[in-house]
Amino acid sequence: MKKNSTLFFSLLFSAISCYAQVRVTAVSQQFQTLPAHLPAADTLDSPHCMVYYRYFYPVDNFNGGFSEAEDRLTLQIGRTVCKTFSHDLHLWDRNLTYGERNKFRFRTNMVDYEIFRNYPTGRMTVQHRIPYSRILQGSTQVVEYSEPVPQIEWTISGQTDSVGGYRCIRADGRFGGRDWRVWFAPDLPFAVGPWKLGGLPGLILRVEDASGDYRFEFDGISTEAEPIVCYDWRPVKMSKAKWQKIERRMYEHPMDYFSKNGEIKVLDMKTHQPLDGEWKVRYNPLELE
Which long-range contacts (CB under 8 A, 24 or more apart) does 84-91 make? Predict the structure, then answer.
């Protein structure tokens, strides 16, 4: 971790510790996904296997463009349910909740979503953790929506490649307003992949967005028997369309969204001093529609 990042993280939490006295909370100009005390959970399924991916995505660099961020994702594949979530955020949550000492790669822009694909119902449940909610609202706030499992029209080509030692075949399809090139492994007979992608005769191991904004890269597979669980966050349930509208406004006008219960001091990513000017965060969502 860079020295200035360590300094900034310390500064952030020093400001938070004074919140009760002065009702002013200092937050980063860049949205941060914070760990949470895990609530009770329902066990949904036992996985056949757990697949790991390196996930690359754009974040505002506050210099007129985007920088590439990286997270690690876990895909649990069960008999009736599969689940995608941030591997490192999950370990950070467990350390905070249970006092465990799991090793994880620290950063504050981890993926905020957990996605559950239910095979029998043909539906998908998506939960988004709201940034800063634990320090601004006193508890972690989660938004949830449900949608049908995407029926992506894939075009399977004759092109092959090796990914992680598995023979893979290329397929192309469009979903969420983006064109995707994926590589799936017929020898791994699971018609799923990371995030919301799936529907091919084999596990998706590599994903590339045609614009170059997003990609997923296979990083290993195991048969660990960690159960697939759904935590009882008591989420606010809404339609996908409403969530997308809220999320866009959260990026375009974050001060309006976050400053409901007290004054917020926004710290510039470069100087670590209070931001001089309007707080905005560039918006380049994974789903464009």
Answer: 84/113, 84/114, 84/115, 84/194, 84/195, 85/111, 85/113, 85/114, 85/115, 86/33, 86/110, 86/111, 86/112, 87/52, 89/33, 89/35
Hey, what are 284's tokens? 């380049």
Sign of the CA dihedral with 198 first, then 200, 204, and 207 last: negative
Rg for the chain, CA atoms, rounded: 20
Q: How far apart are CA 139 and CA 231, in angstroms?
A: 14
For residue 33, the one-letter residue type is T
3-state secondary structure 107-137: CCCCCCEEEEEECCCCEEEEEEECCCHHHHH
Enter the pTM of the model: 0.88
Q: How far apart are CA 25 and CA 15, in angstroms?
A: 6
Among 208, 196, 199, 204, residue whose Cα is nearest residue 221: 204
The answer to whether residues 250 and 238 touch, using CB atoms and an 8 Å cutoff, is: no
Cα 130 from chain centroid (whole Å): 11
Domain positions in the chain: 33-149+224-257, 155-207
Are 255 and 160 in contact, with CB atoms under 8 Å apart? no
Tell me the per-residue pLDDT of 35-86, one tens digit each, with 9 for 90 and over: 999 999 999 999 999 999 999 999 999 999 999 999 999 999 999 999 999 9
The single-letter code of the amino acid at 95 is: N
| H helical segments located in the chain | 3-17, 19-22, 87-98, 133-137, 240-252, 254-258
pLDDT digits 0-9 by tens, 175-189: 999 999 999 999 999
147 strand-pairing partners: 124
Q: To which residue do tokens 């999320």 refer? A: 247
Distance CA 77, CA 231 (A): 17
